Amino acid sequence: QVPVITIDGPSGSGKGTLAKLIATELGFALLDSGALYRVLGQAALKHSVALDDEAALAAAAESLDLRFEVSDAEEGVKVILEGDDVSRQIRTEQAGATASVVAAIPAVRTALLQRQRDFASLPGLVADGRDMGTVVFPRAAAKFFLTASAEERAQRRYKQLIEKGFDASLPVILEEVKARDARDMGRAVAPLKPAEDALVLDSTQLSIEQVREQVVEQLNR
Ligand code: C5P
């Protein structure tokens, strides 16, 4: 049994950063499941698949030609779609919004399920997303749910985008954060919510370092 640690939460809660820190600390592999949905959204746009064509999107998910490449670059991992590096392209707000549209389709989620589970390998896996603890790895060794107020998450997202050289507007991002929350929490399949056995951490008033300490403390129990 491969040990799996799940970190779920809404967009901008810091779960991606936290997952990276924990994976590095433990020497575990990392699954950024959001990247799968982001890449699928971009693949759909690239091949002119309509975002409401559920059968075509499920087929695209099934045959998605996606690779994660470990790199020395800042981002750590390169995301390769059909041979092209889309690491930067998938990180825009627009790509996140498109991802949350395709992610609401049940057949898409089913198509990506095994692909996500295949990331589990020794010595272990840290998986971050929305349904890692509830659906993909229900028997995970440790589950965390990281949250923060919408205002705080928008603020962080704004800073990140500016630092990466993207154009951004805080009020627009706050609206986008709220819209994405509504879509992720309101959908019929795998809605965003903590697993019953997850430890819920609110990072509104905490630095990522403080969150990391709490997670490590919990893992050492
Ligand atoms: O985490 P990230 O912001 O990259 O995810 C982009 C979108 O993909 C989310 O808003 C959500 O709709 C979807 N997603 C999901 N299940 C996951 C990870 C992401 O539905 N496990």
Write the layout of secondary structure elements.
Layout: E1 4-8, H1 15-26, E2 29-32, H2 33-46, H3 54-62, E3 66-70, E4 77-81, E5 84-85, H4 93-102, H5 106-117, E6 125-129, H6 132-136, E7 142-147, H7 150-163, H8 170-186, E8 199-202, H9 208-219
Parallel strand pairs: 1-6, 1-7, 2-6, 7-8
Antiparallel strand pairs: 3-4, 4-5
Helix pairs in contact: 1-9, 2-4, 3-5, 4-8, 7-8
The protein binds cytidine-5'-monophosphate.
CATH superfamily: P-loop containing nucleotide triphosphate hydrolases
Query: What share of the residues lie within helices?
Result: 40-55%
From the N-terminal CA to the C-terminal CA, the straight-line distance is 20 Å
Number of domains: 1
Q: Low-confidence stretches at least 5 residues in length (pLDDT < 50)?
A: none
User: How much β-strand is present in the residues?
Assistant: 15-25%
What CATH architecture would you give?
3-Layer(aba) Sandwich
How many runs of DSSP E, i.e. beta strands? Answer: 8
Count of DSSP helices? 9
Mean pLDDT: 94
Structural summary, described in words:
The protein has 9 helices and 8 strands. It has helices spanning 15-26, 33-46, 54-62, 93-102, 106-117, 132-136, 150-163, 170-186, 208-219; strands at 4-8, 29-32, 66-70, 77-81, 84-85, 125-129, 142-147, 199-202. The two termini are 20 Å apart. The chain has one domain (4-216): Rossmann fold (3-Layer(aba) Sandwich), CATH 3.40.50.300. The longest helix has 17 residues, at 170-186. The protein is globular, with a radius of gyration of 16 Å. By secondary structure, it is of the alpha/beta class. Helix 3 (54-62) packs parallel to helix 5 (106-117), helix 4 (93-102) runs parallel beside helix 8 and helix 7 (150-163) crosses helix 8. The strands form 2 sheets. A 5-stranded parallel β-sheet has the order 2-6-1-7-8. Strands 3-4-5 form a 3-stranded antiparallel β-sheet, covered by helices on one side. The structure holds cytidine-5'-monophosphate. Residues 11, 33-34, 37-38, 96, 99-100, 103, 129-132, 180, 184 line the site of cytidine-5'-monophosphate.
